[in-house]
Amino acid sequence: MNKIVLGLVLGGVLGIFDGFTALLSGPELFEGPDWVSALLGIVAGSTFKGLVAGVITGWVARKLQNLPLGIVVGLFASALVTFPIAWMQRDNEVTHRNYFWAIMIPGAICGAIVGFATQRYGKAPAPAAA
Questions:
Q1: Model pTM?
Q2: What is the pLDDT of residues 63-78, one digit of tens each?
């Protein structure tokens, strides 16, 4: 699988798991009758963030063949995509808690994993024929 597709697939799958980490944030976030829709919204948003960060990470991994740089790019690409959402949730209007780091840390870890996997397991583009 080429690096961009691997980044896309892995970013989406890890985005789903990243979204479900919201369940670890505390029960007050999921109180009330609409907690399922709140959780599904979080999972959908995390999946989209993972897809975008995965494509960016895969594209950079395709251009640069460097494992440590791939991990750093994955971490920063994911953190960059995650930052606006985390910034909006720094004072949640429902729970009045700050979820900034609870959003940023799992997102950045997922990005670092995608960066590692795309560099290590993704196929490099074939050399052009002369």
A1: 0.86
A2: 888 999 999 999 999 9
